[in-house]
Amino acid sequence: MSSSRGLRLACALAVIGALTSACGLSGSSDDGNEPAGAAKGPLKGTVTFETLQLKPTFTTYVNGVIDAFEKKNPGVNVKWVDIPFQGAQEKLTADAAAGALPDVVNLNPQFAQALEAKGQFIDMDTAASDVKADYIPGAWQAFTVPGRSGSYGIPWYLTSEVTMYNKSLFKKAGLDPAKPPASFDQLFADGSALSKAGKGSFYGAHPALENRFITDLAKQGVPLLDKDGKKWTFNTPEAAAYLAKLVDAYKKGVYPKDSLTQDHSKETEAYQAGRVGLFPSGPNFLTIIKQNAPKIAEQTAVGPQITGESGATNMSVMGLLVPKTSKNRNAAVAFASYMANSENQLAFSKIVTVLPSVTKALKDPYFTDAGDGSVEAQARRISAQQIAKGQNLVPVQYDARVTQAVVGKVQLALQGKLTPQKALDQAVDAADAITAG
Q: Under DSSP, is residue 423 helix (H, G, I), strand (E, B) or coil?
């Protein structure tokens, strides 16, 4: 998953303020155990906890967890600091250089990778070994670094993409509104039918290349990096064949002509305006659609995430990391484990459309039952089923710079200026140069 997508996930949380409500918070950890490696005796000291743009929407929730943790550990004082997304990476880099990172920091794998690679964070495989088994394996593995042992974050909240689609446009295209596409070939076929029916008034889908292209390759089994994590390898014949299908779809008008350089926000706008019939994205966007385009929301249904023959599904991960510079490491790990335990994650999931990373929480009836039968409940159940075997399929090295270089070459292919194979070869060369630098 690209870093921009991880940012949008958290940005979406700030948007969905209307869902915030009072909720019960866990008063104790799942099993009462302190993190592995913690010193014997009561925890003490000040723990600075830094998050990405969660205030003011989730102030009540986060403060409630902090208060409960401090009550359980009266020797610990948690100081919560919330920073904006704009300039967050630069701030973290500067803080790391100055040895001034917070004790617990909320990051996604792409944001964390540059600091992880320099050994800035403690290994949770060791420090939190007693809780590792509680988490979805794919979520825990999201904070690993190629070529290094260990995992450097405790997973917090997740999302897993579903396929939203407009039932009314499906009917106009002669498609079964009860059968959304589940594979890439079905996506192209349905997209073509929708575009033909729309005759320029609506289209099949939006490419959203910066979010989707590299993830879709990974879903289809294309190896993105070599085993050492140093060389990009996605210029395979299979990847070229897939890009050729994208080129063909663009030429045939499956995508709006102006969509080639547009990002996920424009894709969202296009779906809300009824300009595209298919919208693969996180379930959290159902709330945004309902708020901004209630008539489109009424026609929206959901299906599973589109994937390849392997059935691999992608997830977006946010985690909690503890820098080695923390002066109260044991208290910091204990607090991170507490914030991300089953009960607290379940409570968070009930006030905003995210998924918990703890397996126990995913088994709660909130995620397994039909609920009120709403499209939101359906999406929640589908995404929860997917997340159990989901992975963060995109390597942490696929940062904003690599994304820009790769997408630029893909765009040239869609414009007919490069062949699919040559575009991928050049994309790999450009990505290698960035990663090596």
A: helix
